[in-house]
Specification:
Layout: E1 41-56, E2 59-66, E3 72-78, E4 82-89, E5 98-100, E6 121-127, E7 134-139, H1 146-151, E8 156-161, E9 172-181, H2 197-205, E10 211-214, E11 221-224, E12 229-236, E13 243-247, E14 252-257, E15 260-268, E16 271-273, E17 278-284, E18 292-297, E19 316-323, E20 351-358, E21 361-362, E22 374-376, E23 381-388, E24 394-398, E25 404-408, E26 411-412, E27 421-424, E28 429-435, E29 441-447, H3 450-454, E30 458-463
Parallel strand pairs: 1-4, 3-8, 9-12, 11-19, 20-23, 22-30
Antiparallel strand pairs: 1-2, 4-6, 5-7, 7-8, 9-10, 12-17, 13-16, 13-18, 14-15, 14-17, 18-19, 20-21, 23-28, 24-27, 24-29, 25-26, 25-28, 29-30
The structure holds CU-O-CU linkage and copper (II) ion (CU) (2 copies).
Length: 464
């Protein structure tokens, strides 16, 4: 073991304990083992527990981890699967597991309404709907503690696959879960006191970390053969950092977003990935044999001027793409049409909701677990106008239902896509249409800067 892990018992030592060091070969998170042998049934165990591991060279850190790993192991399922997750909370505080973006019953959503006490066991049970193939993630969602528990290490990826996926099966599939963190010199995670100068900055900006992790690794290397096409699925699991992804010298062929594939691929130079958003894109091995290209996050000003970090305008490197010296392969053909996304008919909308975001508040109010903010009938189609009244971006997320963006600042969205989170930039307005096609119950909507969410920038939608 490279960096003297403390004696926590072999069972708890993460598989990648001596791997998360700078410049190593890229590692995908491990996949949750399916214990069921029945077809279309997935049965897995997830335990959240404190442990200690090496996240950076030379030091160990007290963390929380799902199954001893950061990120947690990937839930990898097929459309139509019945999923049973045997979850156990071995933390000394309440938690939940929220299946971000999944279209499942409200009681299974792991929202703050269903906390699990220390020591408690709970089965999350749901069916993966057809048409929902895509990249999602899971994370804790206890009242006022989500930011803390995610910072401690609780987050993991979800991949839903479709039997009729239009992209060639031969593409190498890479799950990339992005997180960031900040540490004290002794390796412990830096949580400043609430009223300290840094605590005030964290409360405003959301807690941002100077160390960026790619699947728990720092600057790993992905190898590609010239001409090879790879399918990258990226999750922004950071509490507040917004990524502006760009691959040096190459364009990306974006094929999907939060709720799965686009109708058609789109050639882009860069992709803005706000908190909790996901993206799928193809990296076409257009570089020369033996060359390298960096995946970077470019500067993006989401901040208010008062709390903008000094280094905000520096690009940051995320990973190295390294071209092998093998003879180039002939690039595989990518279909021009991926799927047809059903239209949510705005003429059927029975209500228009205005959601005003200000610093820490939604419609001027702080979150109250005993208050329902929006009530809507089952099967209704509604339009939500989300306006950001302040000079800082707020990524807005709705639980349970994927929506379609209509326009941003009055400019119509050119393509139809399924989204569960949309960044609402400073002083801008985004409109979307949503249909509550099933699953009555209480659903959250909130800013996905976790510090904002924890401090009350959240509301409750009741579908009945
Ligand atoms: Cu990522 Cu309320 O969730
Ligand atoms: Cu969610
Ligand atoms: Cu916010």
């Amino acid at each position: 073991m490279a960096f003297g892990l403390s004696s926590i018992g072999a069972a708890n030592i993460p598989k990648n304990a001596d791997e998360p060091l700078t410049g190593r070969a890229f590692l995908a998170p491990t996949v949750l083992r399916n214990m069921s042998s029945k077809p279309h049934v997935v049965e897995v165990n997830i335990t959240a527990a404190p442990t200690r591991m090496s996240l950076q060279p030379g030091v160990t850190t007290d963390v929380f981890a799902y199954n001893g790993q950061i990120p947690g192991p990937t839930l990898d399922v097929q459309e139509g699967d019945s999923v049973v997750i045997h979850f156990q909370n071995k933390l000394s505080e309440a938690t939940t597991v929220h299946w971000h973006g999944l279209h499942i019953p409200a009681e299974q959503d792991g929202s703050p309404f269903n906390p699990l006490a220390p020591g408690e066991k709970h089965d999350y049970v749901f069916v993966i709907k057809h048409g929902t193939a895509g990249t999602y993630w899971y994370h804790p969602h206890p009242d006022m503690r989500s930011g803390y528990q995610v910072a401690m290490g609780l987050y993991g990826g979800i991949i839903i696959r479709a039997a009729d996926d239009p992209l060639p099966k031969s593409l190498t599939d890479k799950l990339i879960v992005l997180g960031d963190n900040r540490f004290l010199p002794d390796g412990s995670i830096d949580f400043p006191a609430l009223r300290s100068p840094q605590g005030i900055i964290d409360e405003n900006n959301g807690r941002e970390g100077n160390v960026i992790f790619v699947n728990g690794q720092i600057m790993p290397t992905i190898t590609i053969r010239p001409g090879e096409v790879q399918r990258w699925r990226v999750v922004n699991a950071s509490a507040s950092r917004i990524y502006r992804l760009a691959l040096q010298g190459q364009t990306l062929l974006q094929v999907g977003t939060d709720g799965g594939l686009f109708e058609k691929p789109e050639e882009v130079n860069e992709i803005l990935l706000a908190n909790s958003e996901r993206v799928e894109f193809l990296v076409r091995g257009t570089g020369k044999p033996g060359s390298v290209a960096l995946l970077q996050t470019l500067p993006y000003d989401r901040y208010s001027p008062q709390t903008k970090p000094a280094d905000w305008n520096h690009p940051r490197d995320l990973l190295t793409l390294k071209y092998s010296t093998e003879t180039p392969v002939r690039p595989i053909a990518i279909p021009a049409h991926l799927r047809t996304i059903p239209v949510l008919d705005t003429t059927k909308a029975t209500a228009t909701r205005t959601i005003s975001l200000s610093q820490g508040l939604i419609n001027g109010k702080m979150m109250d677990m005993n208050r329902v903010d929006v009530t809507a009938p089952l099967s209704a189609t509604e339009i939500w106008t989300v306006e950001n009244l302040v000079g800082m971006d707020h990524p807005f997320h709705l639980h349970g239902f994927q929506f379609q963006i209509l326009d941003r600042n009055g400019v119509p969205e050119k393509d139809r896509r399924w989204k569960d989170t949309v960044n609402v930039p400073k002083h801008e307005t985004v409109r979307f249409v949503v249909k509550y096609n099933d699953f009555p119950g209480l659903w959250m909507f909130h800013c996905h800067i976790l510090d904002h969410e924890d401090h009350g920038m959240m509301g409750v939608l009741q579908v009945k």
